UniProtKB/TrEMBL annotation:
Annotated keywords: ATP-binding, Ligase, Mitochondrion, Nucleotide-binding, Protein biosynthesis
Subunit structure comment from the entry: Subunit of the heterotrimeric GatCAB amidotransferase (AdT) complex, composed of A (QRSL1), B (GATB) and C (GATC) subunits.
Protein source organism: Pygocentrus nattereri
EC number: 6.3.5.-
Protein name (Swiss-Prot/TrEMBL): Glutamyl-tRNA(Gln) amidotransferase subunit B, mitochondrial
Record NCBIfam families: gatB, PRK05477.1-2, PRK05477.1-4
Top-level taxon of the source organism: Eukaryota
MF terms (GO), sorted A to Z: ATP binding; glutaminyl-tRNA synthase (glutamine-hydrolyzing) activity
Length: 549
């Protein structure tokens, strides 16, 4: 029987209340208290030998990330229950998600496509054939007792991710790095356990059970928290651009496990600890840097590193042991008997006879639909518009900002370098001040382009243009010309008019008349702070009519 939807009323009755598991916490607490030193094979010999204090300065951090990205799809990986996170507990659970006997997994094509698109964007080789395996855990929020994953032959392998971060002594240099992606595997998410300490019970919500995940495993190519956080941010941006994961870390859509060890450069890698489920890029950096320092101290004091799973406590900024890993954790991997190998095809020509081409995943079609990726877009911004690299980062990081900028550029005579100044300062300044998203900006790209055109024509000064921008923000329905008129901000170039203004200024400030009438004094008549090009016009006026001197 194939897994059916969450529509069954019997199932709903059974699951719409929380399922109680009183024993779960006891099991977990037991596990946490049994911590042994890693003694398995090679890793036990890889403790860096630190005999004296101070030698730890030679030790370098080594970091490898495993990132779980929830696939942005309407239904789960192997069942047609909805992916719905804010709905009432256990309201989106198919028979399969609750592991009812007799249910079978049916693979969701959208999830496969998401993994292939992600693999392509990360320069991976897409395996034309991949396999599913069972990985066994005893967790109450995983009622089957195993997770379906891709341990032996994952869908994508051997990729890379290029990311940049501010480094150097003063942390003001943009440094570019590359981390290798070992593999991307499709797997199921688990449900959620909620611990009710007062009543000493654990409540289970299976809405998340069976949601499609991509686990991205990176090689241990990084060396500090800043690098890892930057890699996570870049990956988040790529996934959001692709639409394969929404990437909201605080909602658990992107969860990071950071593997950390220390070693002396040139020597084999040290024993790693794994800091699990970090849910913000900032915490990734803090957890890793703490863990590197902790390991250095342990070794310096003659201790050894235990291969264990740890958790990051954001309040204290420290990592704390959760459970021992190696030795205790035996996942008892086995091939998933209910799922055939997964095949993806290069193009229509490679689809075997008898297979419906509309029912398969074709790589060339997905490749053709790949959007412009953040790295490519940044490079294009710098190249095409001659803007600063740091501005290209801001443009790409903010959803829709590149499109906004390019629409302004298309509609104005102003140079892109001038446009970027207005976008960075005036537009983003106002949005940040009022905590608005770009889509909520009262000033459209076309309206900003109009303003810049009026500024370019010399009809208003740049300080007047800033005043007009603020007025446009308050009254977006008004056209730029109308606002300039209403506020009387147009530059005066009529000589008669200028003379009248001067006369008025002189008349209304008799005390200033005692000041010797030098050229420079005339240029700041009445203490008016005139803009340099206005001053220039005054200069010309004075030169044309020396009687004014
Ligand atoms: N010595 C090391 N120091 C730091 N990171 C390491 C080291 N050795 C391996 N890693 C990293 O640890 C991660 C191992 O992930 P992988 O999914 O292969 O195994 P796992 O952590 O044992 O399994 P699980 O998926 O159950 O957590 C990779 O990101 C790898 O780069
Ligand atoms: Mg892993
Ligand atoms: Mg791991």
């Amino acid at each position: 029987m194939a897994a059916s939807s969450s529509g069954s009323s019997t199932l709903k009755r059974t699951l719409c209340t929380f399922i109680r598991y009183r024993s779960v916490r006891c099991v977990r607490q037991c596990n946490a208290s049994i911590r042994t030193v890693c003694t398995s094979g090679s890793t036990s010999q890889l403790q860096p030998k630190i005999q004296s204090k101070g030698v730890s300065s030679q030790l370098r951090g080594v970091v490898g990330l495993e990132i779980h990205a929830q696939i942005h799809a309407t239904s789960k990986l192997f069942a047609c229950s909805r992916v719905a996170f804010c709905s009432p507990p256990n309201s989106s659970v198919a028979f399969l998600d609750a592991s009812l006997p007799g249910t079978l997994p049916v693979l969701n094509r959208r999830c496969v496509e998401a993994a292939v698109i992600t693999g392509l964007a990360l320069n991976c080789t897409i395996n034309r054939k991949s396999l599913f395996d069972r990985k066994h855990y005893f967790y109450a929020d995983m009622p089957a007792g195993y997770q379906i994953t891709q341990q032996r032959l994952p869908i994508a392998v051997n990729g890379s991710l290029i990311y940049s971060y501010f480094g150097g002594r003063k942390r003001n240099q943009v440094l570019s790095r590359c981390v290798r992606i070992k593999q991307i595997q499709l797997e199921q998410d688990s449900g959620k356990s909620l611990h009710d300490d007062q009543r000493s019970q654990t409540l289970i919500d299976l809405n998340r059970a069976g949601v499609g995940l991509m686990e991205l495993v990176m090689e241990a190519d990084m060396s500090c928290g800043d690098e890892a956080a930057a890699a996570v941010r870049e990956l988040q941006l790529i996934l959001q651009t692709l639409g394969t994961c929404q990437g909201n870390m605080s909602e658990g859509q992107l969860r990071v496990d950071a593997n950390v060890s220390v070693h002396c450069p040139g020597e084999p890698l040290g024993v790693r600890t794994e800091v699990k489920n970090i849910n913000s890029a900032r915490y990734v950096a803090r957890a890793i840097d703490y863990e590197i320092q902790r390991q250095k101290k342990v070794l310096e004091n003659g201790g050894i590193i235990v291969n264990e799973t740890r958790a990051f406590d954001s309040k204290s900024g420290t990592t704390i042991p959760m459970r021992d890993k190696e030795g205790l954790q035996d996942y008892r991997f086995m091939p998933e008997p209910n799922l055939p190998p997964l095949f993806v095809y290069e193009d229509e020509a490679s689809v075997p006879a008898g297979v419906n081409p509309t029912q398969v995943v074709m790589i060339d079609r997905l490749k053709a639909e790949l959007p412009e990726l953040p790295g490519v877009r940044r490079a294009r911004m710098v190249d095409q518009y001659k803007i600063l690299p740091e501005h290209s980062f801001t443009l790409v990081n903010e959803d829709g900002l590149t499109e906004y900028f390019e629409r302004v550029v298309r509609n104005t005579k102003a140079e892109p370098r001038k446009v970027i100044g207005w976008v960075m300062k005036e537009l983003l300044g106002n949005l940040n001040q009022q905590s608005l998203k770009l889509a909520q900006s009262p000033v459209s790209p076309e309206a900003l382009a109009d303003l810049l055109n009026v500024l370019e024509s010399g009809h208003i000064s740049s300080s007047a243009a800033k005043v007009v921008f603020q007025e446009m923000w308050k009254a977006p329905e008004k056209a730029v010309e109308q606002l300039v008129k209403e506020l009387d901000l147009g530059l005066v170039s009529d000589r008669e008019k200028l003379l009248k203004i001067c006369q008025k200024v002189v008349d209304t400030h008799p005390e200033q008349l005692n000041v010797p009438t030098t050229k420079s004094n005339l240029l700041t008549i009445g203490g008016l702070d005139l803009e340099s090009h206005t001053k220039l016009k005054w200069k010309n006026t004075l030169q044309a009519d020396p009687t004014l001197m």
